[in-house]
């Protein structure tokens, strides 16, 4: 296989070839490193490349497999994670100047579990400073670019992860999602992004942004790959007080079975609001595709969610982020970018009355979803109401109205951070300009299996995944 | 409308001191955010408070 063919493999495909010893983990790792060398000066997806240790890890994997010690589908697979997971001996900056020399002496839970599964680590990936934003504009490490059009943003905050996976600069990644930061860049870059249920993946060693809304989630080329990563990293961890003890499933095995009889709810309030016409068309067609595959589609109502989720999210996220940064913000304010510093300052003065009110409304939003999910198994809607905006584009025109770009990007994702429900973004089409569009599917708490199964059924019955970004 | 001076005063109360330009930018941001949050009052007026309440007897 050529280097390009090796890097284009999914984790599932590469894992099978490695298991059969048809492909060497060293060759795949070297092919990824060559591709990073070739394309990343422009795309700026990596903050740190770990070339030497990655090749050494790949060699170890190869030797172990040749001796019959095969650990599973991630053994020898080159991954790269968002620059926010503690990794022993590696600089982890969280996309910030404040932590530019931060070298941790321990592994975060996700790194620990991926190491156990035999994964190879290519490096750490670009992100919005402290994960506090959705454009991935980062004044310290450069702006990651969208591989489908490098004048456009990849989305954020896990934008480096989405762009690197889409451009085949690694085979898969894990990002973090406090308001949409896995699903949104996944949608804008044409890959799969899974935000599991709150507490499903340990956040031990993950830098915090929003203590009640932070989630870690796989970002991959396919739904099966997301299931493979979830199989490796999900499960209880007493070191994270927010980590659930709920039993895990075998997510990859659960993919089979299709969507016949699965009830999919389409929330009427969200579709009544402004969204890009090509996004609306693609997502409507995707829902019809699910119907043709046997799903039962019905309209549902989430009466408070579209109007109140975004502002409820703003109140809670701003207060929580500012509490995380309160000490450094006072002692080292110059080590933050102006944009992040001002956002964090504003969070310090959100009135406590509003915060308590927002928490009560959060219960209302959860009740809306509970009621809907008693009737249906899944909720379907777009991941983002617009495709990837141009770098620096502050407003977008939707149905004749100028709307703040950030508001347009995050409007549909934060509801599932407030409520903690498992949600996936899966590619469902392209605009006439060649920009990816994502379908968002949300399920019942701890029912990642149904979410993944429906997304897998959709993905394997369409051909969106076959397209590749036109890298120069 | 929140003024730059209001912002400075609010931030001093939480131990932060900022310059004029920064206060001015945040004044417009905070005004927008807090105005938006006023909608929470409308919702509570319409729907009531969804937080479960317990009577003294239930607590006992």
Gist of the model:
Chain A has 472 residues and is of the alpha+beta class.
Describe what this molecule looks like in 3D.
The complex is a heterodimer of chains A (472) and B (60). Chain A is of the alpha+beta class and 472 residues long. Helix content of chain A is 40%, strand content 15%. Chain A has two domains: 3-255, Amidase signature (AS) domain (Amidase signature (AS) enzymes, Alpha-Beta Complex); 263-466, Amidase signature (AS) domain (Amidase signature (AS) enzymes, Alpha-Beta Complex), CATH 3.90.1300. Chain A has helices spanning 3-8, 11-19, 25-43, 51-66, 109-116, 159-166, 183-189, 223-233, 268-271, 277-292, 305-331, 338-348, 352-375, 405-410, 415-419, 448-460; strands at 46-49, 78-82, 120-125, 172-177, 192-195, 215-220, 263-267, 296-300, 378-382, 395-398, 401-404, 423-430, 436-442. An eight-stranded mixed β-sheet of chain A has the order 4-6-5-12-13-9-7-8, sandwiched between helices. Chain A has a three-stranded mixed β-sheet with strand order 1-3-2. In chain A, helix 3 (25-43) packs antiparallel against helix 4. The two termini of chain A are 21 Å apart. Chain B has 60 residues and is an all-alpha fold. Chain B has a domain at 1-38. Chain B has helices at 4-13, 20-37, 39-47, 56-59. The A-B interface holds A 304, 307-308, 311-312, 314-315, 318, 329-330, 333, 338, 342-343, 345-346, 348-351, 354, 357-358, 360-361, 363-364, 367 and B 7, 10-11, 13-16, 18, 22, 25-26, 29-30, 33-34, 36-37, 39-41, 43-44, 47, 49-51.
């Amino acid at each position: 296989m050529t280097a390009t063919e090796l890097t284009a493999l999914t984790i599932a495909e590469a894992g099978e070839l490695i298991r059969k010893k048809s492909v060497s983990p060293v060759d795949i790792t070297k092919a990824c490193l060559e591709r990073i060398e070739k394309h990343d000066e422009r795309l700026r997806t990596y903050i740190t490349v770990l070339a030497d240790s990655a090749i050494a890890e790949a060699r170890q994997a190869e030797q172990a497999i040749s001796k019959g010690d095969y650990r599973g589908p991630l053994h020898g697979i080159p991954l790269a994670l968002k620059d926010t997971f503690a990794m022993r001996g590696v600089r982890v900056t969280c996309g910030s100047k404040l932590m530019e020399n931060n070298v941790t002496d321990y592994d975060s839970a996700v790194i620990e579990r991926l190491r156990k599964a035999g994964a190879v680590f290519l490096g750490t990936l670009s992100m919005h400073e402290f994960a506090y934003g959705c454009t991935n504009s980062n004044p310290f490490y450069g702006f990651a670019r969208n591989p489908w059009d490098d004048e456009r943003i990849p989305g954020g905050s896990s934008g480096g992860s989405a762009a690197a996976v889409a451009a085949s600069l690694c085979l898969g990644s894990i990002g973090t999602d406090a308001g949409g930061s896995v699903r949104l860049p996944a949608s804008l870059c044409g890959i799969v992004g899974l935000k599991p249920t709150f507490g499903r993946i340990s956040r031990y060693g993950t830098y915090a942004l929003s203590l009640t809304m932070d989630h870690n989630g796989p970002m991959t080329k396919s739904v099966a790959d997301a299931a493979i990563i979830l199989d490796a990293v999900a499960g209880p961890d007493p070191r994270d007080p927010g980590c659930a003890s709920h039993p895990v499933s075998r997510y990859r095995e659960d993919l089979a079975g299709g969507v016949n009889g699965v009830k999919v709810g389409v929330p009427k309030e969200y579709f009544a609001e402004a969204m890009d016409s090509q996004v609306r068309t693609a997502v409507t067609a995707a829902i019809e595709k699910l119907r043709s595959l046997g799903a039962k589609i019905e309209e549902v109502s989430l009466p408070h969610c579209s109007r109140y989720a975004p502002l409820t999210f703003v109140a809670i996220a701003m207060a929580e982020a500012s509490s995380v940064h309160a000490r450094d913000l006072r002692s080292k304010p110059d080590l933050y970018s102006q944009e992040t510093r001002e956002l964090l300052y504003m969070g310090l003065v959100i009135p406590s009355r509003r915060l308590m009110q927002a928490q009560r409304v959060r219960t209302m939003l959860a009740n809306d979803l509970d009621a809907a999910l008693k009737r249906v198994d899944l909720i379907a809607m777009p991941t983002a109401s617009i495709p990837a905006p141009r770098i620096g584009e502050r407003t977008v025109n939707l149905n004749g109205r100028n709307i703040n770009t950030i508001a347009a990007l995050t409007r549909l994702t934060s509801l599932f951070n407030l409520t903690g429900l498992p949600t996936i973004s899966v590619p469902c089409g392209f605009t006439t300009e060649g920009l990816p569009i994502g379908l968002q599917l949300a399920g019942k708490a701890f029912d990642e299996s149904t979410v993944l199964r429906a997304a897998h059924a959709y993905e394997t019955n369409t051909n969106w995944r076959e397209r590749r970004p036109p890298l120069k | 409308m929140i003024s730059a001076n209001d912002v400075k005063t609010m931030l001093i109360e939480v131990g932060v001191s900022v310059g004029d330009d920064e206060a001015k930018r945040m004044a417009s941001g905070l005004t927008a955010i807090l105005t938006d949050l006023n909608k929470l009052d409308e919702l509570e007026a319409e729907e009531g408070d969804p937080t479960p309440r317990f009577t003294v007897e239930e607590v006992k």
